[in-house]
Design goal:
Blueprint lengths: L9 E5 L3 E6 L2 E6 L10 H16 L5 E6 L4 E3 L7 E2 L2 E3 L5 E2 L2 H10 L4 E5 L2 E3 L1 H8 L2 E5 L3 E3 L2 H4 L6 H10 L1 H10 L3 E2 H6 L5 E3 L4 H13 L3 H33 L2 H11 L14
Parallel strand pairs: 3-4, 4-9, 5-10, 9-11, 10-12, 11-14
Antiparallel strand pairs: 1-2, 2-3, 6-7, 7-8, 12-13
Helix pairs in contact: 1-2, 2-3, 3-5, 5-6
Bound molecules: o-succinylbenzoyl-N-coenzyme A.
C-alpha cells in the first residue's frame, strides 16, 4: 500500500498494521487498516507500543504525530470483528485490552504527541485523540463515543480526562447519546485545537511541530509532566518526581554526593548556593 504525502518520510521500521515514519525530528505513526476505518486489533496496538518505545529512546525524535491511513478515518476504535469474551483476541486466541497500555505510553512519553485527525475518530479511536497532547483535525473529521451502542465503555481517560477537556455535562451527553460531532462542533466545545481543510492537514500539523521543535525540550517535558500529575495521582507525581530527580542529577550539588562517596570522604554541600 503506497502512502502519499508531500513530505519524503523515511520508514523507521516495517510493521503489518501500522506505518512508522520519520522526517526532520518528527515521527509519524499511521494506523494502516483503512478497510475497517483504521480499527485497531491487539497486534495493531502491540505495534504502536513498539513504535512509541522507539520514539521514547531515539534522541533524534522530538515530537510524534499519530494518524490514520487515507482521508476517511483517523481510527474507529477496537476491531469488533476480533472482539472475544473479556477483550480482543490476539492471534493465539488470548483476550487483551492492550489499548489502555498505549494510552498510558502516550501520556508517559516526555515528548509532545499530536493527533492528526483525518476523518472518523470513534470509540477507542476517539479516546486515542483525547489522550494525545494536541489535536489538529481536518474539516471532514467526525468525533463520537459509541460504547453504549456496541456494549463497551472507557471509564478511564475516556471519561475523566475527556471531562477535563469538555466538562462533565458534555462528556455525559457524548457517552449517553453516542452522538456524532463535526470538527467545528468539536473545536467549539474545546475537544480539539484546530480545524483545517483536509488538504492542509499535514501541512498545518507539520507547522505546529516545527514551532514546538524550536521550544526548550526540557521545558515542554516538565509542562507535560505537571499537567499529567494533577490528573494521574501518585503515578503522575512519580513521573514528575522522576524528572525533578533528573534535573537534580544535572546539578553540581547532586554530583558532589556521588563524588564524595566514590572518593570515600564526607560530602561538602555547604559550598553550594542556597536559593530562596
Ligand atoms: C466509522 C463508521 C461511523 C463509518 O461508517 P460507514 O462510513 O457507514 O462505514 P461502515 O460501512 O460502517 O464501515 C466500513 C467497514 O468497516 C468496518 N468497521 C468499521 N468500524 C469497525 C470497527 N471498529 N471494528 C471492525 N470493523 C469496523 C465495517 O464493519 C465495514 O466492514 P464490512 O463492509 O466488512 O461490514 C462506522 O463504521 C462505525 O460506527 N464503526 C464502528 C465503531 C465502533 O463500534 N467502534 C468500537 C467502539 N468500541 C471501542 O473502540 C472499544 C474501546 C476500547 O477499545 C477500549 C476502551 C477501554 C478499555 C479497553 C478497550 C479495549 O477494548 O481495548
Amino acid at each position: 500500500m503506497n502512502y502519499t504525502s508531500k513530505i519524503d518520510w523515511i520508514p523507521i521500521k516495517k510493521y503489518k498494521d501500522i506505518l512508522f515514519l520519520f522526517w526532520e525530528g518528527i515521527s509519524k505513526i499511521i494506523i494502516n487498516r483503512p478497510w475497517c476505518h483504521n480499527a485497531f486489533r491487539v497486534e495493531t496496538v502491540d505495534e504502536m507500543i513498539n513504535a512509541i518505545n522507539i520514539c521514547y529512546n531515539r534522541k533524534d525524535i522530538d515530537i510524534l504525530i499519530i494518524t490514520g491511513y487515507g482521508d476517511k478515518s483517523f481510527c474507529s476504535g477496537g476491531d469488533q470483528k476480533t472482539r472475544g469474551l473479556g477483550g480482543y483476541l490476539d492471534k493465539d486466541g488470548v483476550t487483551k485490552l492492550n489499548i489502555l497500555d498505549f494510552y498510558k505510553k502516550i501520556r508517559e512519553i516526555p515528548k509532545p504527541v499530536i493527533a492528526m485527525v483525518n476523518g472518523y475518530s470513534i470509540g477507542g479511536g476517539h479516546v486515542l485523540h483525547v489522550v494525545c497532547d494536541l489535536t489538529i483535525a481536518s474539516d471532514n473529521a467526525i468525533f463520537s463515543q459509541v460504547g453504549p451502542k456496541v456494549g463497551s465503555f472507557d471509564g478511564g481517560f475516556g471519561c475523566s480526562y475527556l471531562a477535563r477537556h469538555i466538562g462533565q455535562k458534555k462528556t455525559r451527553e457524548m457517552w449517553f447519546l453516542c452522538k456524532k460531532y463535526t470538527a467545528k462542533e468539536a473545536l467549539k466545545m474545546g475537544l480539539i485545537n484546530k480545524v483545517v481543510n483536509k488538504n492542509e492537514l499535514e501541512k498545518e500539523t507539520i507547522k505546529w511541530c516545527k514551532i514546538i521543535q524550536k521550544r526548550s525540550a526540557m521545558s515542554l517535558r516538565m509542562i507535560k509532566r505537571c499537567l499529567n500529575a494533577e490528573l494521574d495521582g501518585q503515578h503522575g507525581l512519580m513521573q514528575l518526581a522522576g524528572d525533578a530527580t533528573l534535573m537534580f542529577y544535572l546539578m553540581e550539588e547532586s554530583q558532589e554526593g556521588k563524588k564524595a562517596f566514590l572518593e570515600k570522604r564526607d560530602p561538602n554541600f555547604k559550598k553550594f548556593k542556597k536559593f530562596l
